[in-house]
């Protein structure tokens, strides 16, 4: 067997992942560990009033730790809020103290505050912007000193959405403050991505965004969202992909993350990559 293949694509690298307690974030943590990376993980592990579905818990984050350690790699996992830049910097520093370097940043933390009474509140808009736009900027900014000190450069990947290209709202009935905030934040991070891609290219730090369609995670598959979609079938119709494939799993997005961070993606920066089975082509 080829030694390089046995070692994994990301051997002895370090990745910082937000929203790592479950869903896409957990899948990314496990996949990067399987490819040989150590993991710095952070998640709020608490509930926001504007979010109608149950959010991740400390026990979820503990399960991510267990799954990463099962691969034989190391993980530093902390509870923290991406709306708190200083907290993010402290988590990154703990990871640096443990692992000595940082190579990749996956700004993945997200919420979908569209359903229920919470989604109808103005707070849902401000929460969406704070978590998925300001929080993405804070994540990158907090990690930037460590990336800049890495002589090999590095890569940043922002989790946007198909909603970064088209609105979550499909008709008057699906309009809500939370849906507006989600759409605005997911559009906005394309600008953040392009800002950093231009600015950091000379430092050999690549910055891209990934735009998933519907992914089978607790953020999408829950009672509150099912009830909301049941009342607004036009929303479900708008999410249908062109390719007749099963609903994407979190690991399908992890494939894109590894590609953008790994050797195969070394020439890519400033790319807004749809992973949506053609959903946004309609």
UniProtKB/TrEMBL annotation:
<keyword id="KW-0520">NAD</keyword>
<protein>
    <submittedName>
        <fullName>Dehydrogenase</fullName>
    </submittedName>
</protein>
<keyword id="KW-0560">Oxidoreductase</keyword>
<dbReference type="InterPro" id="IPR036291">
    <property type="entry name" value="NAD(P)-bd_dom_sf"/>
</dbReference>
<comment type="similarity">
    <text>Belongs to the short-chain dehydrogenases/reductases (SDR) family.</text>
</comment>
<dbReference type="Pfam" id="PF13561">
    <property type="entry name" value="adh_short_C2"/>
</dbReference>
<dbReference type="InterPro" id="IPR002347">
    <property type="entry name" value="SDR_fam"/>
</dbReference>
<dbReference type="GO" id="GO:0016491">
    <property type="term" value="F:oxidoreductase activity"/>
</dbReference>
<dbReference type="InterPro" id="IPR020904">
    <property type="entry name" value="Sc_DH/Rdtase_CS"/>
</dbReference>
<dbReference type="InterPro" id="IPR023985">
    <property type="entry name" value="SDR_subfam_1"/>
</dbReference>
């Amino acid at each position: 067997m080829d030694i390089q293949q046995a070692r994994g694509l990301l051997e002895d690298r370090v990745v910082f992942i937000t929203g790592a307690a479950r869903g896409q974030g957990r899948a990314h943590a496990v996949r990067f560990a399987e490819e040989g990376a150590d993991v710095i993980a952070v998640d709020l592990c608490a509930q926001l009033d504007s979010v109608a579905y149950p959010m991740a818990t400390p026990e979820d984050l503990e399960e991510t730790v267990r799954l990463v350690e099962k691969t034989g790699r190391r993980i530093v996992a902390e509870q923290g809020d991406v709306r708190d830049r200083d907290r993010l910097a402290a988590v990154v520093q703990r990871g640096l103290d443990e692992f000595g370097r940082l190579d990749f940043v996956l700004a993945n933390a997200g919420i979908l505050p569209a359903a229920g009474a919470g989604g109808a509140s103005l707070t849902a808009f401000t929460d969406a912007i704070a978590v998925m736009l300001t929080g993405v900027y804070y994540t990158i900014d907090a990690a930037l000193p460590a990336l800049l000190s890495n002589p090999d450069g590095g890569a940043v990947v922002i989790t946007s959405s198909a909603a970064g290209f088209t609105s979550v709202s499909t008709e008057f009935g699906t309009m809500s403050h939370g849906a507006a905030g989600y759409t605005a934040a997911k559009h906005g991070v394309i600008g953040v991505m392009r800002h950093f891609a231009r600015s950091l290219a000379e430092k050999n730090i690549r910055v891209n965004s990934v735009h998933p369609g519907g992914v089978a995670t607790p953020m999408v598959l829950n009672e509150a969202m099912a009830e909301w979609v049941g009342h607004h079938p036009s929303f479900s119709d708008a999410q249908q992909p062109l390719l007749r494939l099963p609903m994407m799993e979190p690991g399908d997005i992890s494939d894109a993350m590894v590609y953008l961070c790994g050797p195969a993606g070394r020439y890519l920066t400033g790319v807004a990559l749809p992973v949506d089975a053609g959903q946004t082509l309609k």
